[in-house]
Amino acid sequence: MPSVSPDIITHRLLVFKEARPITQKKRDYSDDKCLATKAETEKLLSAGFKCEARYTTWLANVVMVTKSNAN
User: Whole-prediction pTM value?
Assistant: First the structure.
């Protein structure tokens, strides 16, 4: 969030130094899920809520969940 200090909202992972990263296999998504993911990402980037970060060893796939009130 642009108006909140990063000291308050920054998330840090407490990971054991001897822990080895486990990478997930890249999943392929249907075209509609891929478009929805891209649209939501662009919306968050343009609002300044998210920024690009590259963590090649600690990476998880996107999990798409349909809201219960969606039609």
Answer: 0.54
Domains in the chain: boundaries: 1-64
Instruction: Determine phi and psi for 65, rounding to 5 degrees.
Output: -125, 130
The DSSP code sequence of 23-70 is PPPPPP--HHHHHHHHHHHHHHHHTTS------SSS---------TT-
Q: CB of 34 within 8 A of CB of 41?
A: no
pLDDT of 24-64, one tens digit each?
787 888 899 889 989 988 998 898 888 777 766 666 778 88
Asked if residues 51 and 16 have their Cβ atoms less than 8 Å apart, the reply is no
- How far is Cα 67 from Cα 36, in angstroms, rounded to an integer? 13
